[in-house]
Amino acid sequence: MSILRPEVDRPGDDRAEKEPRAGARPRRGSGAGTRPRGERRTDGQTPAGTRARTRTRPGAGPRTGARPGAGAREGERAGPGVPEAARAGLPARIVAFAGRTLRGEWEGIVVDPLRRLRRRGPAALSLAFVACGGVIFFHAIAQRPAGATAVRILGGVQGDLPLWLALLRTPVSLYVPALDLPVWAGITQLFLAFALAELALGRARTLAVAYAATLAGTLTVRVLIAMGPDRWGVGLPPETAQVLDTGPSAAVVGLFTYLSVVRRAPIVFTLTGGSMVVESLAKPNLAGREHLIAVGAALVLGLLHGQGGRLRRLLPGVRASAQVRGSA
Transmembrane segments in this chain: where (predicted)? Predict the structure, then answer.
């Protein structure tokens, strides 16, 4: 008699050891002859009617708790520093990111406006044609002494003019070309800026952004002249007030900046703003200051784009808090 398994015959043992009938599925945990889960046989045989727990796949051994190579991968993750494979793929990821950014900017700033131009026709560029035609017209008139005087009276803006007169001449000064810049090179930039902005933003918003950028430069220059050249290094000397401040360059810079912010184009924004910074550092004159101011104004307007609903929701709360403070 064995200690591990007593040789005691119990009723029903012979029935439990018999083979199940064909087509019948054995029930688990039922019947007197079933063996409790977890109990092993000492004779190395698998009881009839039970399934082997070891599952095998074709061409692979039995599954265990650990996968081959898992420890190596865990060691690479936990190890200090970046793996060599990741360092080797870093330039490729940078190139891929730059490619995706360029493709997105090309789609948003060039391809989408061209699709609208194809749908709407040349009439969609009416504002761009009017802007270029106005610059050419005023440039042709200014070639004669009488015409130059008329252009100066209609659109000539200077820092020493009364404020009301400067504000009255500012809209016309958009079409008066600067005397120290080549007009035909500026017309190309003017047409591209107004055409892309008109197709992407609409005529009303294009005019608003262009005028806001120009007006911001005109008004801020007065503040810089009043500050003087010795105030924080950003002021302008008093003789700058007699320099003629005309031309659409501030509007062009403002439109490109606004488009780059609204269309999420960091490369165009960097090229536009970076060139203005370089220009202002290389030639610190009135035009350089105005271009930087135009970039800043367009940047603020671009960040506020689409925030009208949020501002309208905030205004009632601000008014209510002001009323509460006034009553207290």
Answer: 123-142, 181-201, 208-228
236-262 residues labelled b (16+ CB within 10 A) or e (exposed): beeebbebbbbbbbbbbbbbbbbbbbb
Instruction: Please list the pLDDT of the chain residue by residue as tens digits (328 residues).
Output: 444 444 444 444 444 444 555 445 555 544 444 555 544 554 545 454 445 454 545 544 445 444 554 444 444 444 445 556 555 577 778 878 778 888 888 888 888 888 888 998 888 899 999 999 999 999 889 888 888 899 889 988 888 888 899 899 999 988 888 766 667 777 888 999 999 999 988 899 999 999 999 999 889 888 888 887 766 667 788 888 888 888 888 899 999 999 999 988 888 888 888 888 887 777 777 888 888 899 999 999 988 876 666 656 666 655 556 555 655 5
What is the three-state SS of 210-261? Answer: HHHHHHHHHHHHHHHHHHCCCCCCCCCCHHHHHCCCCCCHHHHHHHHHHHHH
Nearest C-alpha neighbor of 99 from the set 261, 257, 267: 267
The number of residues making up the chain comes to: 328
Please, what's the b/e burial string for 165-179 (b: 16 or more CB within 10 A of its CB; e: otherwise)? Answer: ebeebbebbbbbbbe
User: In the chain, how long is the greatest CA-to-CA distance?
Assistant: 134
In which residue are the tokens 């996968």 written?
67
Q: Where are the alpha helices (DSSP H) in the chain?
A: 13-16, 70-78, 84-106, 112-120, 126-141, 145-155, 163-173, 183-201, 203-227, 249-262, 266-282, 286-303, 308-327
Asked whether 212 and 255 are in contact (CB, 8 A), the reply is no
Class of the 96-305 domain? mainly alpha
